[in-house]
Design goal:
One of its GO terms (molecular function) is glycosyltransferase activity. Keywords: Glycosyltransferase, Transferase. This is Glycosyltransferase 2-like domain-containing protein. The protein is of the alpha/beta class and about 325 residues long. Helix 8 runs antiparallel to helix 9. The radius of gyration is 19 Å and the shape is globular. About 45% of the residues are buried.
């Protein structure tokens, strides 16, 4: 069995592959695979003609981010110990994969790890997705060192450390292959968005740690598949967040969180309506409707492994949105 494979999920991403594969091939040591979600553009022809050394897994339909990785990794699960899941719009740096794998191999109690993720467009600035390490507030809202909601910091070296985090970004994350498959991978019902946070939550509940290593840097374009300001992304984030919290919290805790989130997010829907952004208001309402419709089929997660101490961060931040929007705290240090 080999140590690691770099796995890139692709769906109609020919232009992204042309732009970012050169850095991956130049700076990577481990095998590179592309899992294709039944693309209809010229992606596969481009790979076959320009990068015949890259191995491909061709799926029968678009399974989304969650299902696509589940299907793809299942086909090579017996060949590698670790997988680096890499978005197709990420530029990597010299020694990046060796740095990640060397660290996680030396820390056997970690199931996932992410590097520092900076913006490809502004390379002195953190990226929205993952930044300097991801956390969850007391109501399940994700935030990062270097990015609180839409407030994004410059990289001033503050997050060059190595720490435990609540979640690793799906833009670039290492996963322990055995743990990934024991936990059934990503939740395919999520399709896209929040699935890596849900997986990391389940990993932590099962006794594993999630790490961040600031000594390794990559640059993420972001929005290549779905713009973060789109109604569709808002819908998926809200719907999947509710499912994630319901799955991983106790019934009483979920009820308290649901009341607060429902109030905040329905107020946001009203605000969108007043601003004439009907599609965003509808996205909020549709997310709550669809969560209620599927709630009975969402299984509570109970760790199957015995004898592990539960590893859960007890964060000091209760409601990051309140601190960001009302109290004006725009950086991680201010929280």
């Amino acid at each position: 069995m080999k140590s690691c494979a770099i796995v890139i999920l692709n769906y109609n991403g020919e232009e992204m592959l042309k732009k970012f594969l050169p850095s991956v091939c130049m700076h990577s040591t481990y095998d590179v695979w592309v899992v294709d979600n039944a693309s209809t553009d010229g992606s596969l022809n481009f790979l076959e003609e320009s990068y015949p050394q890259i191995q491909q897994i061709k799926l029968s339909k678009n399974f989304g981010y969650a299902g696509g990785y589940n299907e793809g990794l299942a086909q090579i699960r017996l060949q590698y110990d670790y997988f680096i899941l890499l978005n197709s719009d990420v530029e990597v740096t010299a020694g990046w994969d060796l740095g990640l794998i060397k660290w996680i191999e030396a820390h056997a109690d970690y199931a996932a790890l992410q590097p520092k993720i900076l913006s490809w467009k502004e390379k002195d600035t953190f990226d929205y997705a993952g930044a300097g390490g991801g956390f969850l507030d007391g109501y399940g809202y994700p935030y990062c060192r270097g990015r609180i909601w839409d407030s994004i910091e410059k990289d001033k070296g503050s997050y060059d450390d190595t720490i435990d985090v609540d979640w690793a970004s799906g833009a670039c994350m290492v996963v322990n292959g055995t743990v990934f498959h024991q936990l059934s991978g990503f939740d395919p019902d999520f399709f896209a968005h929040m699935e890596e946070i849900d997986l990391c939550w389940r990993m932590r509940k099962s006794g594993w740690k999630i790490g961040y290593i600031g000594a390794v840097e990559v640059y993420h374009l972001g929005g290549a598949t779905l713009d973060r300001a789109s109604p569709k992304k808002m819908y998926l984030n809200i719907r999947n967040s509710l499912s994630m919290i319901y799955k991983n919290e106790t019934a009483s805790r979920f009820l308290r969180i649901f009341v607060v989130k429902s109030l905040l997010e329905h107020l946001a829907a009203v605000s969108f309506l007043i601003q004439g952004k009907k599609e965003f208001s509808r996205a909020v309402l549709d997310a709550y409707r669809d969560f209620r419709l599927k709630k009975s089929s969402v299984e509570k997660f109970h760790p199957e492994w015995e004898g592990r101490e539960e590893v859960l961060r007890k964060g000091k931040v209760n409601l990051v949105f309140w601190k960001w929007k009302v109290l004006g705290k725009k950086s991680f240090e201010q929280l």
